[in-house]
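Researcher: We're teaching a course module on how sequence relates to structure. For the next exercise, students receive a sequence and then see the predicted structure as tokens, so they can try to spot secondary structure elements on their own. Here is the exercise chain.
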Amino acid sequence: MGLRLGILLLAAATLTPEQRQRNIDSFEHVWITVRDKHWDPQLGGLDWQAVHDELRPKIERADTREKARAVMSDMLERLKATHFEIYPADLYEDVNGEGAGEGSPGMDVRAVNGHALVTSVEADAAAEGVQAGWEILRVDGKTVAPALGAIEARLRASTMLELMQTAAVERRLAGPQGSMVAVEFLNGKGRLVTLMMERARPRGTVTTLGNLPPMHFWVESRRVAEDVGYVRFNLFLEPETLVKTVEGAVKECAGCKGFIVDLRGNPGGIGGLAMGLSGWFTDRRGLELGTMYLRASKLKFVVFPQPAAFAGPLAVLVDGCSASTAEIFAGGLKDLKRARIFGSRTAGAALPSIFERLPNGDGFQYAIANYISEGGRPLEGIGVTPDEEVKPTRGDLLAGRDPALDRALAWIHNQKN
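Model: And here is the predicted structure for the students to work with:
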């Protein structure tokens, strides 16, 4: 019986001629994409043709998906750059699959130390009794932990770990509007609770950007203390609405002790908005947030100062799901010594990064630009390191505490006028 099982497993692992060809086609697609789309045509002096010629025989001999994947990963590692990755098909589907639907059960979630925690709830989820700090264990009967573990095994050393793990949980929760999803939680009392939750229309207004699917945009502003203004938004989109909201919040808070911009969970959007919004926090001319280098051009992120800019202490909140334009905004203002950053290190995904499905079903991620902050540091694969690093714990969330916001408020109130 044991011998028969071993023969069956060996047969299952052996690739058919068609599967081998798809692996070869995937190898060629990855090589050509890097050759034609990498921001540095010289690849830092790397002989890319020689790399191809060295590894092509290995991809032809690869008799398992794992061996083929290892050859392509070896090729990308020669670039010595971040965010050039091969993702196994099941992992790619977890973090970047298509067709899940835009309906949401009304919970904001984060992967915190490998656990899927609810960080905030909207009205519908709150009505079901869900609270911040509850841990999500299963979605429609499927345990979340194995997917989070697989992503950690693949991206343990990557700044994108939290972003990818969170995306995997969000994908499981998403679905067509009006459909139901069964979510099993570990509640604040340590008990298992399973709720049937309706996927509703996400918060905000529908907006689009280029060829991306429709997204929901929202922005909010308020006072988080009598003398501290606060603005938070989920995307750098809807320029007119976003700029007017920030402008109004700044002007209403002209006499405030300080101001907080909350970019936690913000994956970016229109890069130019970082230039416009940063101008509401400085009236100095000639400042830049950094420079993005593309294959045939470069873009300087010049700050557009406003005469009515807020001049007091400025805090910016970030986390591992803050990416792209959010990182450019936070990192640029930090380099200019205009803002103090609170939270956890950002995703290190400041560049236009593209995910594609390869002919063999695996996923391929590659970047098409490089970004250097005004302080001379790259953000890609490194991220913005907060001046005061603080992550929420499950205990903080259950108790209704927001340690990053609390630390920012304490810093502002300790500043001299």
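Model: If you want an answer key for the exercise: The longest helix spans residues 17-37. Residues 99-198 form a domain with the Pdz3 Domain fold (CATH 2.30.42.10).
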